[in-house]
Amino acid sequence: MIYLDNAATGGFKPASVQNAVSAALKLCANPGRSGHTLSLALAERVLSCRALLSDLFEGYGYERVVFTKNCTEALNIAVLGVLCEGDHAVCTCLEHNSVLRPLEHLKEKGVITYDVAPLTEGKLLPETVAALVKPNTRAVYVTSASNVTGETPPLAAIRALLPEHVLLIVDGAQGAGHIPLSMKGMGIDALAVAGHKGMYAMQGAAALLFSERLSPAPVLFGGTGSESFDLGMPKFYPDRLESGTLSYPAIASLFEGALFVRAHREAHAAQLTRLTAALSEKLKEFPEIRPYFAPNPCGIASFAFERLQSEEVAQALDRLGIAVRGGLHCAPLVHKALGTFPDGLVRVSFSPFQGMREVNALVAALRRIRLSTSF
Description:
Blueprint: E1 2-3, H1 15-26, H2 37-56, E2 65-68, H3 71-80, E3 88-92, H4 97-108, E4 113-117, H5 126-130, E5 137-143, H6 155-161, E6 167-171, H7 183-186, E7 190-194, E8 206-210, H8 248-282, E9 289-291, E10 300-305, H9 310-319, E11 322-323, H10 332-338, E12 346-349, H11 356-371
Parallel strand pairs: 1-11, 3-4, 3-5, 5-6, 6-7
Antiparallel strand pairs: 2-8, 7-8, 9-10, 10-12
Helix pairs in contact: 1-8, 2-8, 3-4, 8-11
């Protein structure tokens, strides 16, 4: 199987990540819950991971790094725990349902209103986003990279056009690990990070990093190992947002993944840009294929195959030993903007561990599909 679905979950993990998970499973305790030596040692490793993530993304300190089980949970905190009654929010049509559905939930309950920034000639323009801001706008939500097209919105330029009081909250699911994301440098107030994609960690590893400009309310309640005498949640972070046992194996994998990203991000971004550029060039031999991507450092390449549904093409490729994803990719509004709703697109997403062998194999498979289809 040639795995080209890395935007859903990274299929290739460095040896250091694999070894960290194995070690965590061989000897594990509950970090931050007990006072014995092993629990304290693991709690120190958890603290080291918070500090590393804050450093990698130029954040606001280890205490403002909260671990979650996935980027969706992190974004739910950044929506449900931040927006209050009467607030207005802005998002973009590039957003994933991890942002759209919490916003819609609050809208349906009559808590907030929100507007969606459209594309202009296929691009998200900073002025389009800024034009939607109202006096009661609390936050603007923008993805770091589209999981459909690979487009990376100009986050710093968007921040520059926003009023000072408006929060900039970024979905880093696709961008984290692939592109530089400096929270302080770009004016990002909150960044949701998926560990299992460009960060090379295992599934179940994710984080929310946030500045002193917001104080997210908890959306989950329970034990924290701190202030157990109080039936209310602790007032300090990260404990206020971390109820229940942390997944130490996942955090250990995220720590090693972050180290790996710090050492290899630029080289990997260049490789993914080369692979998407090579595929873009090779698809020119297929008049029946319409690409919806440009070369990008996230490794994402989506396309439509004339008169074939995206799921049909994905299933045909699967039968030929190539794993891709068809459909809407949990991002319906970008497909509406592109005119590919409701069928969606075939999405190919490369790993930097791959090369021209995988590109050529995909192109050869597409030729076979073309030959088996009457045009």
